[in-house]
What we know:
Elements: H1 21-41, H2 59-75, H3 84-109, H4 126-138, H5 161-176, H6 183-203, H7 217-240, H8 249-262, H9 273-294, H10 303-336, H11 340-377, E1 379-381, E2 387-389
Antiparallel strand pairs: 1-2
Helix pairs in contact: 1-2, 1-8, 1-10, 1-11, 2-5, 2-7, 2-9, 3-4, 3-5, 3-10, 3-11, 5-7, 6-7, 6-9, 7-9, 8-9, 10-11
Amino acid sequence: xxxxxxxxxxTAIAPGKPHYVILDGLRGIAALMVVIFHVxxxxxxxxxxxxxxxxxxxxxxxxxxxxxxxxxxxxxxxxGRMGRWEFYKRRxxxxxxxxxxxxxxxxxxxxxxxxGLFPKIxxxxxxxxxxxxxxxxxxxxxxxxxxxxxxxxxxxxxGPAWSLFYEYIANIAYALVLRRLSVRVLxxxxxxxxxxxxxxxxxxxxRDLIGGWALxxxxxxIGLARLxxxxxxxxxxxxxxxxxPVRHRFALCSLLLIVALALPRMGDTPHHWSNGLYDALCxxxxxxxxxxxxxxxxxxxxxxxxxxxxxGDLSFPLYITHYPLIYLYTAWVVDNKVxxxxxxxxxxxxxxxxxxxxxxxxxxxxxxxxxxxxxxxxLVVSNQGGSTAR
Length: 390
């Protein structure tokens, strides 16, 4: 099963609050690394030691960390002027349009992926595929009875949607409970979440943090472990005010993130404990360090800010639309035993096409739809505490 990562979208920031542009850019860099990771995954033959861009799956944990940080920054001081349902509407408007498009895109390419790697596809009637597509548009997790692909995914038309499901769980938990907690109580929860993360990384069967997309006890266990610590750590990092002002922070953070996601598998066996330790250290120490550096300044200018904004805007569309192409590419490579030297040019073309599709989705669909939904359903929360219909 392909390891997937979630690019959490940029949160709607209150009027007068600037974006952390560097953090947006880092989200985009990580999303691009995810695409490259999935392209190389076609040649790993299910052996994690052969996987190039080996730790790309950790991008999902990085995205959850960013989500906790940015949601706390955007909304911690808005309660009282904005209720829970307004918050839920904002998150749905920000995320759901691209979730729908990802499910529809996955359905459009589904039958082109049929073959030896996905033998269940050919026997899936169109009505069943369309039913799964409609359920996928809701983001509700699908049981294995609806697994029309064979990879035990809760969203078999567009696998990466699994992490958006956990993103919604985190958002609901934030609105109901987490926003009310003191730093001390949040710290206690963070310690408990850290113990759960270490248990999965060091004692799990794989000795890594891959998983979370299956609707069974193991999948839910891994998914919650990957969600809880980074999301809480992001909230804690924002509320603590810990920042590390350094020069050239976007370049430095990008380099640290790329290296962390690209390093080879640790240890001399596929399930060595050292790889689990590496995963845990990345999530618990390195990624918070990267965010603390990236959040050292909100207002940046020059070439860095233009690059960061481009990648930040592209991150969520790229994440949620690229994987149907990966299904197609992986099936072609595996079924035809395509060597890397012949498949590499196609893989490069896939990355380019994925970026183009993401950009077109952003400009022609996502942004216009969100603008319309915002005008129709949201309230503008003013800095003075009042709300007016937008």
